[in-house]
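Open question from group meeting: does this chain pack into something compact, or does most of it stay loose? Before anyone orders reagents, we agreed to write out a predicted structure and look at it together. Recording both the input and the output here so the notebook holds the full record.
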Amino acid sequence: MRCDGNGGDDGGDSRPAFHECGRGTTGISDYKALVCIFLAGGNDSNNLIVPTVPSEYNSYATIRTPVLALPAGNLQTLDGYTDPAGHTFGLHPACPELKTLFSEGKLAVLFNTGTLIQPITRQQYIQNSKPSRRNCFPMRIR
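Structure tokens returned:
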């Protein structure tokens, strides 16, 4: 797609491709992108990013039970990172690449995000009284 909305290559057009539009008009040289991946049931986010403050980890482990909770010693800790509220986190042990990206400043995590069309309550979702996307709440409310 071209900056003017015309797609494709028109045989020698020197206008920048769509992903270069901001860089071409503003002088920005460190192109970055926000990549959002929607996993339809393919990710257990509560085991991807785990709290590591002892009291918070203990709550996580109690809720997840020994069957699902990851052992604290197996987590890929995000060394040196503490959020403004004093929380620390670790990543699933099978995700060392994510830890590397985070440590390099190439990965950020956004909690509690979703695809709502507009604000909606649990009751409105159950009653189907407001427009909403499918599967925007945990399975337990269905």
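Observations to bring back to the group:
Residues 54-68 form the longest helix (15 residues).
Residues 1-10 have pLDDT under 50 and may be disordered.
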